TrEMBL record:
Coiled coil: none annotated. It comes from Photobacterium damselae subsp. damselae. GO terms for biological process: cell wall organization; peptidoglycan biosynthetic process; proteolysis; regulation of cell shape. Residues 1-25 form the signal peptide. Belongs to the peptidase S11 family. One of its GO terms (molecular function) is serine-type D-Ala-D-Ala carboxypeptidase activity. Residues 31-184 form the Peptidase S11 D-alanyl-D-alanine carboxypeptidase A N-terminal domain. Pfam families: Peptidase_S11. The keyword Transmembrane does not apply. The active site is at residues 65, 68, 128. The keyword Cell membrane does not apply. This is D-alanyl-D-alanine carboxypeptidase. Keywords: Carboxypeptidase, Cell shape, Cell wall biogenesis/degradation, Hydrolase, Peptidoglycan synthesis, Protease, Signal.
Length: 184
């Protein structure tokens, strides 16, 4: 009887303690999604792939400079497979240099310059250089058109079923599109 009484007292004390601590806990508030002016977006949980918030997630849009993410990814895969090296030095072609459109993002590389591959990667990612993206594409695949074939092949492997790439830099092109969902 004494044991039962002690057990009931211990359980009661535990319940009372847990109830008193829960009264201090702040309520969990999940804020509304912010108002964005983007044509489309998606926010996903990295671990589960669950969509947390989206707007026009499957609408085909021009990815613009987000195209350079795929350019970087494809070049990285080619590096991983040993087809190119981070230590390569790339000779800049007239075609790559010609991506210096007025008011467009560029690395300011010159025709015939010998540029280390990792400098081109920095120019691609940090400067969003259109010239760097074409130089990388030509180095990896011999031409930008051949590189675009690699981009579209990788897009299929990554289940980017609503994406089509038409160049390595993302400047407007009728055949260039993706969706926020595919990019996420």
């Amino acid at each position: 009887m004494k044991k039962t009484s002690k057990l009931i007292s211990a359980v009661s004390a535990s319940v009372l303690c847990s109830l008193s601590f829960s009264s201090f806990a702040a309520p969990s508030v999940i804020p509304d999604a912010p108002s964005l002016s983007a044509k489309g977006y998606v926010l996903m949980d990295y671990h589960t792939g669950r969509v947390l918030v989206e707007h026009n997630a499957n609408e085909k849009l021009n990815p613009a400079s987000l195209t350079k993410l795929m350019t970087s990814y494809v070049a990285g895969q080619e590096m991983k497979q040993g087809n190119i090296s981070k230590d390569d030095v790339v000779v800049i072609s007239r075609n790559a240099w010609a991506r210096n459109f007025h008011d467009s993002s560029k690395m300011f590389i010159e025709v015939g310059a010998e540029v280390p591959m990792m400098d081109l990667f920095r120019g691609l990612i940090i400067q969003s250089g259109n010239d760097a993206s074409v130089a990388i594409a030509e180095h990896v695949a011999g031409s930008q058109d051949a590189f675009v074939g690699l981009m579209n092949s990788w897009a299929k492997k990554l289940n980017m079923n609503n994406s089509r790439f038409a160049n390595a830099h993302g400047l407007d092109h009728d055949d260039l599109y993706s969706t926020p969902y595919d990019i996420a």
